[in-house]
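Example with several molecule types.
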Amino acid sequence: QVQLVQSGAEVKNPGSSVKVSCKASGGTFNNYAISWVRQAPGQGLEWMGVFILTLATADYAQKFLGRVTITADKSTGTAYMDLTRLRSEDTAVYYCARVRSYYESGDDFSYYLDYWGQGTLVTVSS
Amino acid sequence: QSVLTQPPSASGTPGQRVTIPCSGSTSNIGGNTVSWYQQVPGTAPKLVIYSNNQRPSGVPDRFSGSKSGTSASLAISGLQSEDEADYYCAAWDDSLNGYVVFGGGTKLTVL
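Resulting C-alpha coordinates for the full complex:
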Protein backbone atom coordinates (compact mmCIF):
# COMPACT_ATOMS: atom_id res chain seq x y z
CA GLN A 1 0.00 0.00 0.00
CA VAL A 2 1.37 3.39 -1.02
CA GLN A 3 1.90 5.85 1.81
CA LEU A 4 3.03 9.46 1.62
CA VAL A 5 4.27 10.90 4.92
CA GLN A 6 4.89 14.63 5.13
CA SER A 7 7.03 16.71 7.45
CA GLY A 8 5.57 18.55 10.43
CA ALA A 9 3.87 21.89 10.84
CA GLU A 10 5.87 25.09 10.30
CA VAL A 11 5.52 28.68 11.49
CA LYS A 12 7.31 31.19 9.32
CA ASN A 13 7.84 34.94 9.19
CA PRO A 14 6.67 36.91 6.16
CA GLY A 15 9.38 37.09 3.52
CA SER A 16 11.04 33.85 4.56
CA SER A 17 10.93 30.41 2.87
CA VAL A 18 9.58 26.99 3.78
CA LYS A 19 10.52 23.54 2.55
CA VAL A 20 8.05 20.69 3.03
CA SER A 21 9.02 17.06 2.48
CA CYS A 22 6.96 14.07 1.39
CA LYS A 23 8.39 10.57 1.84
CA ALA A 24 6.88 7.70 -0.14
CA SER A 25 6.73 4.06 0.83
CA GLY A 26 5.15 1.13 -1.00
CA GLY A 27 4.75 1.23 -4.79
CA THR A 28 7.52 2.25 -7.20
CA PHE A 29 8.31 5.90 -6.47
CA ASN A 30 10.47 6.49 -9.53
CA ASN A 31 7.74 5.57 -12.04
CA TYR A 32 5.34 8.33 -11.09
CA ALA A 33 4.97 12.04 -10.55
CA ILE A 34 4.24 13.92 -7.34
CA SER A 35 1.96 16.94 -7.25
CA TRP A 36 1.57 19.55 -4.53
CA VAL A 37 -1.85 20.97 -3.66
CA ARG A 38 -2.62 23.54 -1.00
CA GLN A 39 -5.74 24.47 0.95
CA ALA A 40 -6.09 27.80 2.75
CA PRO A 41 -8.23 27.81 5.92
CA GLY A 42 -11.89 27.27 5.01
CA GLN A 43 -11.07 27.33 1.29
CA GLY A 44 -10.88 24.84 -1.58
CA LEU A 45 -8.00 22.96 -3.19
CA GLU A 46 -5.37 24.71 -5.31
CA TRP A 47 -2.82 22.89 -7.51
CA MET A 48 0.70 24.24 -7.26
CA GLY A 49 2.77 22.03 -9.52
CA VAL A 50 4.23 18.62 -10.19
CA PHE A 51 7.58 16.81 -10.32
CA ILE A 52 7.78 14.10 -12.97
CA LEU A 53 10.26 11.53 -11.67
CA THR A 54 10.77 9.71 -14.95
CA LEU A 55 11.86 12.95 -16.65
CA ALA A 56 13.33 14.67 -13.58
CA THR A 57 11.45 17.83 -14.53
CA ALA A 58 8.91 20.06 -12.83
CA ASP A 59 5.90 22.05 -14.04
CA TYR A 60 4.30 24.80 -12.03
CA ALA A 61 0.98 26.60 -11.94
CA GLN A 62 1.43 30.08 -13.37
CA LYS A 63 0.38 31.67 -10.08
CA PHE A 64 3.43 30.23 -8.31
CA LEU A 65 6.07 30.65 -11.02
CA GLY A 66 9.24 32.11 -9.59
CA ARG A 67 8.27 31.34 -5.97
CA VAL A 68 7.93 27.57 -5.86
CA THR A 69 10.44 24.82 -6.56
CA ILE A 70 9.44 21.16 -6.52
CA THR A 71 12.16 18.53 -6.46
CA ALA A 72 12.59 14.86 -5.61
CA ASP A 73 15.36 12.59 -4.40
CA LYS A 74 14.97 9.17 -6.02
CA SER A 75 17.49 7.58 -3.69
CA THR A 76 15.38 8.32 -0.60
CA GLY A 77 11.93 8.31 -2.27
CA THR A 78 11.26 11.83 -1.02
CA ALA A 79 9.71 14.82 -2.78
CA TYR A 80 10.10 18.43 -1.67
CA MET A 81 8.18 21.66 -2.12
CA ASP A 82 10.06 24.90 -1.50
CA LEU A 83 8.04 28.13 -1.35
CA THR A 84 9.86 31.47 -1.04
CA ARG A 85 8.91 35.08 -0.22
CA LEU A 86 6.13 33.90 2.06
CA ARG A 87 3.19 36.17 2.82
CA SER A 88 0.20 35.77 5.09
CA GLU A 89 -1.95 34.51 2.20
CA ASP A 90 0.33 31.46 1.97
CA THR A 91 -0.98 30.19 5.30
CA ALA A 92 -2.47 26.85 4.32
CA VAL A 93 -2.28 23.08 4.58
CA TYR A 94 0.06 21.78 1.89
CA TYR A 95 -0.52 18.27 0.50
CA CYS A 96 1.62 16.06 -1.69
CA ALA A 97 -0.13 13.49 -3.86
CA ARG A 98 0.87 10.80 -6.33
CA VAL A 99 -0.12 11.51 -9.92
CA ARG A 100 -1.59 9.08 -12.42
CA SER A 101 -1.78 10.42 -15.97
CA TYR A 102 -2.40 8.92 -19.41
CA TYR A 103 -4.30 9.46 -22.62
CA GLU A 104 -7.59 7.67 -22.90
CA SER A 105 -9.00 6.50 -26.23
CA GLY A 106 -10.40 9.54 -27.99
CA ASP A 107 -7.51 11.78 -26.86
CA ASP A 108 -8.99 12.74 -23.50
CA PHE A 109 -6.20 13.27 -20.99
CA SER A 110 -6.77 11.57 -17.67
CA TYR A 111 -4.92 13.16 -14.72
CA TYR A 112 -5.75 12.34 -11.13
CA LEU A 113 -4.23 12.12 -7.65
CA ASP A 114 -4.64 8.65 -6.22
CA TYR A 115 -2.67 8.80 -2.94
CA TRP A 116 -2.30 11.82 -0.69
CA GLY A 117 -0.03 12.76 2.18
CA GLN A 118 -1.54 13.73 5.51
CA GLY A 119 -0.91 17.44 4.94
CA THR A 120 1.47 20.00 6.47
CA LEU A 121 0.16 23.21 8.03
CA VAL A 122 2.31 26.21 7.17
CA THR A 123 1.47 29.35 9.13
CA VAL A 124 2.92 32.66 7.96
CA SER A 125 2.77 35.24 10.68
CA SER A 126 4.94 37.90 12.25
CA GLN B 1 -13.11 32.08 -8.06
CA SER B 2 -12.63 28.44 -9.06
CA VAL B 3 -12.28 27.40 -12.71
CA LEU B 4 -14.76 24.54 -12.26
CA THR B 5 -18.17 25.44 -10.83
CA GLN B 6 -19.90 23.44 -8.10
CA PRO B 7 -22.80 24.35 -5.81
CA PRO B 8 -21.53 25.21 -2.33
CA SER B 9 -23.89 22.80 -0.61
CA ALA B 10 -26.07 19.73 -1.10
CA SER B 11 -28.04 17.57 1.27
CA GLY B 12 -30.04 14.39 1.51
CA THR B 13 -31.53 11.97 3.99
CA PRO B 14 -30.16 8.49 4.67
CA GLY B 15 -30.95 6.12 1.81
CA GLN B 16 -31.55 8.90 -0.70
CA ARG B 17 -29.65 9.51 -3.93
CA VAL B 18 -27.87 12.85 -4.29
CA THR B 19 -26.10 14.32 -7.28
CA ILE B 20 -23.36 16.95 -7.25
CA PRO B 21 -22.80 18.78 -10.55
CA CYS B 22 -19.54 20.25 -11.84
CA SER B 23 -19.40 22.66 -14.77
CA GLY B 24 -16.32 23.57 -16.78
CA SER B 25 -15.28 24.49 -20.31
CA THR B 26 -13.79 23.03 -23.48
CA SER B 27 -10.24 23.50 -22.17
CA ASN B 28 -10.82 21.27 -19.15
CA ILE B 29 -13.85 18.97 -18.77
CA GLY B 30 -14.70 19.26 -22.47
CA GLY B 31 -11.42 17.69 -23.53
CA ASN B 32 -10.15 15.76 -20.51
CA THR B 33 -11.46 13.39 -17.89
CA VAL B 34 -12.84 14.32 -14.47
CA SER B 35 -11.87 13.06 -11.04
CA TRP B 36 -13.71 13.50 -7.73
CA TYR B 37 -12.31 13.76 -4.20
CA GLN B 38 -13.99 13.34 -0.84
CA GLN B 39 -12.63 15.33 2.09
CA VAL B 40 -13.80 14.90 5.65
CA PRO B 41 -12.90 18.11 7.54
CA GLY B 42 -9.47 17.90 9.11
CA THR B 43 -8.30 15.07 6.88
CA ALA B 44 -6.63 14.75 3.47
CA PRO B 45 -8.71 14.42 0.31
CA LYS B 46 -9.49 10.91 -0.91
CA LEU B 47 -10.00 9.89 -4.54
CA VAL B 48 -13.49 8.46 -5.10
CA ILE B 49 -13.89 8.68 -8.91
CA TYR B 50 -11.29 8.94 -11.70
CA SER B 51 -11.50 8.96 -15.49
CA ASN B 52 -15.08 10.28 -15.29
CA ASN B 53 -16.68 7.09 -13.96
CA GLN B 54 -14.08 4.70 -12.54
CA ARG B 55 -14.02 3.80 -8.86
CA PRO B 56 -10.72 3.05 -7.10
CA SER B 57 -10.52 -0.18 -5.19
CA GLY B 58 -12.30 0.12 -1.85
CA VAL B 59 -14.73 2.87 -2.87
CA PRO B 60 -18.33 1.61 -2.50
CA ASP B 61 -20.33 1.15 -5.70
CA ARG B 62 -22.82 3.65 -4.26
CA PHE B 63 -20.50 6.26 -5.76
CA SER B 64 -20.72 6.85 -9.51
CA GLY B 65 -19.60 9.52 -11.93
CA SER B 66 -20.61 10.73 -15.36
CA LYS B 67 -19.58 13.35 -17.89
CA SER B 68 -21.34 15.00 -20.80
CA GLY B 69 -19.76 17.77 -22.85
CA THR B 70 -18.32 20.36 -20.47
CA SER B 71 -20.17 19.13 -17.37
CA ALA B 72 -19.78 16.23 -15.00
CA SER B 73 -21.58 14.91 -11.96
CA LEU B 74 -21.00 12.71 -8.93
CA ALA B 75 -23.90 10.61 -7.72
CA ILE B 76 -24.14 8.95 -4.33
CA SER B 77 -26.96 6.47 -3.88
CA GLY B 78 -28.12 4.89 -0.63
CA LEU B 79 -26.77 7.91 1.24
CA GLN B 80 -25.11 7.14 4.59
CA SER B 81 -24.08 9.39 7.45
CA GLU B 82 -20.42 8.63 6.74
CA ASP B 83 -20.80 10.25 3.31
CA GLU B 84 -21.06 13.67 4.96
CA ALA B 85 -18.00 15.52 3.65
CA ASP B 86 -16.77 18.09 1.15
CA TYR B 87 -16.56 16.90 -2.47
CA TYR B 88 -14.30 18.41 -5.13
CA CYS B 89 -14.23 17.82 -8.88
CA ALA B 90 -10.99 18.25 -10.82
CA ALA B 91 -9.64 18.03 -14.36
CA TRP B 92 -6.56 18.88 -16.39
CA ASP B 93 -6.87 22.24 -18.15
CA ASP B 94 -5.11 22.68 -21.48
CA SER B 95 -4.84 26.46 -21.29
CA LEU B 96 -1.62 28.29 -20.39
CA ASN B 97 1.02 25.56 -20.04
CA GLY B 98 -1.50 23.05 -18.71
CA TYR B 99 -2.47 22.68 -15.10
CA VAL B 100 -4.96 21.00 -12.75
CA VAL B 101 -8.16 22.88 -11.96
CA PHE B 102 -10.51 22.15 -9.08
CA GLY B 103 -14.09 23.02 -8.34
CA GLY B 104 -14.80 25.15 -5.29
CA GLY B 105 -16.16 22.15 -3.40
CA THR B 106 -19.63 21.05 -2.32
CA LYS B 107 -20.42 20.44 1.31
CA LEU B 108 -22.69 17.41 1.53
CA THR B 109 -24.88 17.21 4.61
CA VAL B 110 -26.72 14.03 5.55
CA LEU B 111 -29.85 15.16 7.35
